[in-house]
Amino acid sequence: MTLADRAKPYLDDLLAIRHDLHAHPELAFQETRTAGIVAQKLRDYGVDEVHTGIGRTGVVGVVRAGSGQGSSSNRAMALRADMDALPITETGTVPYRSRTEGRMHACGHDGHTTMLLGAARYLAEHRDFDGTVYLVFQPAEEAGGGGRVMIQDGLFKRFDCQSVWGMHNLPGLPVGAIGTRSGPFLAATDSFSITVRGVTGHPAMPHLTRDPVLTAAQIITALQTIVSRRADPVHAAVVTVAKVAAGDVIDVIPQAATLTGTCRTFTPQMRDMVEADLRRIAERTAKALGTTAETRYRRGYPACINSPAETQIAATAARAVVGEGGHIDDVAPLMGGEDFAYMLQARPGSFVALGNGLPGERGGAMLHAPDYDFNDAAIPYGVGYWTALVEAVLPKAI
Predict the structure, then answer these.
(1) pTM for this model (two decimals)
(2) Do 227 and 270 fall into the same domain?
């Protein structure tokens, strides 16, 4: 039996759980139904302790080695899965499609929750490790920073551990593949708003106005020099203006224009530089054109940075499940964000990518797309990875 076969006895039950969660998506900090199902399943599986209401709607299960009364080791590790859905209307036609208009599991958190439940069941039944495993079911990854909220609510004080581990499905990787990467894996995700103010007037007499739309256009172009001319080419950064709002009618030059967008970086130094340059370019470009610019910059999730030693362990566990051919070492970093980064700031650990399917295949639709669906075929590999990881981090004494 391969490690991926460990979920086989539970697979029908896990599929039922995943499809039920998919049909009943809940947004950030509203995961009361999901959390209730998770807590009840953990109790049914014989997990030693089940704690609810951590970080508002988070759940933590505790599995100890041996009979559940403890072990010779005081080592502990935490495995984390996210539970929340997105405010997106599902266009897929699967029988278990979302029953709530405007909400869907478009990022696979239903699959993440299901795989950690599968691992919980296996670990509680076999306990082939030495130490304690904390099973962290986190709310509000998509919005609200549920990982940070759980930490602020005492997650690592109540469930002290030496390492923390995460996983996310990734369309574009084939099912049966696991990607690992040491160092920065996912980007810091910041947002900004630039309000340009000018002098309103009639478009037939532009010389009597100070056009904020023209200034906004110049700022949009100039902001791209941050990446093309200011950032070190070997260190990635992305600056995106995603929304422009100005005026209500065609025969009035408006008084103000607003630009909003995001900045994504991997290092603290690059993050600081991008913010400073964005402010400088906006304000000085506006001044040169006789207008003013007010910049509001909001720092979001920090970069998700994997610890080198823990990533080596993750790679070993991945190869044990998917073999040398299925393990992708040094997988390409992603400019998306992940609030698992807060947990990695508190404890060493590693975050891996689990193959969800190639483009054109089931599971190949991109994350956050309305036709996305987690690939059920990935569940055995996720369960196998979690259980192999526990045995690698907390091996039984020989």
Answers:
(1) 0.95
(2) yes
